[in-house]
Give the backbone structure.
Amino acid sequence: MEEEKKFVGGWGKGNKMGERRPEDICWKERWVDVGSAVRLLDLSAMSQMQRSFSIDLPSLRLPSRRETHLWYILPDEVKSTSLLKRYSQLLSQTEKDRVDQMRGDELKKNALLARTLVRTTIARYQTNEAVDPRSLMFKKNMYGKPELDWQNCNVQPLHFNISHTDSLIACGVTVHVPVGIDVEDKERKIKHDVLTFAKRFYSADEVNCLATILDPEAQRKEFIKLWTLKEAYVKALGKGFSAAPFNTFTIQSNPGGYNLCKTSEITANPLEETKKCNGGWKFALLELADSHYAAVCTEDDQADEGAPMRVIVRKTIPFVEDQLILKEYFCN
Amino acid sequence: MASLSATSLSFKAPSTRSTRISQVLRKASTFQSISFGRFQSSKSLRLQISCAAKPETVQKVSDIVKEQLALSADTALTSESKFSALGADSLDTVEIVMALEEKFNISVEEADAQNITTIQEAADLIEDLVQKKPAA
């Protein structure tokens, strides 16, 4: 089984790589701009819709213990009504009902794409035999976090987490450790004053950090990045928002990456602060499609504490095309 | 001073509640806004009997929600409209809560904020908090 399909022609036009020092394997922020889509399957892909799932969803090896696989869909790229109809056939009745509850066609479509992304993504990692995405079952943990009910449907015990905005839907997958992801439009405008918002919801250290950024646009961007990182952590924790109110923890931005500090542990002594900021969680912050920030948070496996998180990003239109975007390490 | 105001509050509360209950009995439209599902939760049941929010509060909440989610002015919202079904994400919900705090001059606990999933629930919580505020 191939790890991923190879494609001819390399990257599309207009590629840019962020600055990189050769000695660094770790990136604080990374993005790859792929100018034009490179199809992994040829343009007669539509005929493949008649074939079995195992071909339409190329199978993949599972993420390794330090990896998060991040898949995303751009709803604007999915226009075919026959494709959307095929997607709706993958959903359970409960999921279909929830899609119907959404107010307006765009929201309905995005809700459909979100469930499609979850089901088709998880189905790709089933190594024993091709798994019908329809057969996957889900449950919620005792705090309401959606999980794969892997025991009941004989599939690999993956962890996943989903996040969506109007224009991008993402799904993160890990093995061994819980994962949380959050995506946000880079240009998202906050109706309230950024510092007022931060004072109400963020930790004191984060407010102080934001207050030092004088340019309002740069401040807003940093606010959004912090939001995605904090959300990703709470979602990875999986105990609901009341278990980790935003003002009880700080996401610290360091040259090497991001760190979690629990507010109660921060003291006046700067040396003590550093010691207590290895909260047992890894973070990665990326830019997707040049339009969104995406934050990934995974729990630190005790054996892996301090090791970088590897993130593999793929863009997809399920059953049509997959595109490898990025494979990078993120340090803490 | 504190004990005096607490006493005055407890005198006030029953009459406010009975007015509300009579409002519920009189206005048939309020019954229509109660969805079947809410009977299953004892929390909802308590809110329903003691603190059915005034229509004006529901309207103010709807206006704030429409503004935050950039919905058109003629979008039909009912008290049972779910934030998530209107496309609100977690950031929207937090901004809505902040706008409600400003509008009604209240302070919402994070745990309470999370339990808000519909316009009715937001309105009920607001009225609960407004009622609990110390007498001016």
Chain B touches chain A at residues 67-68, 75, 81-82, 85-87, 89-91, 94-95, 98-99, 110-111, 114 (CB under 8 Å). The CA atoms of residues 82 and 118 of chain B lie 4 Å apart. Chain B has seven helices and no strands.
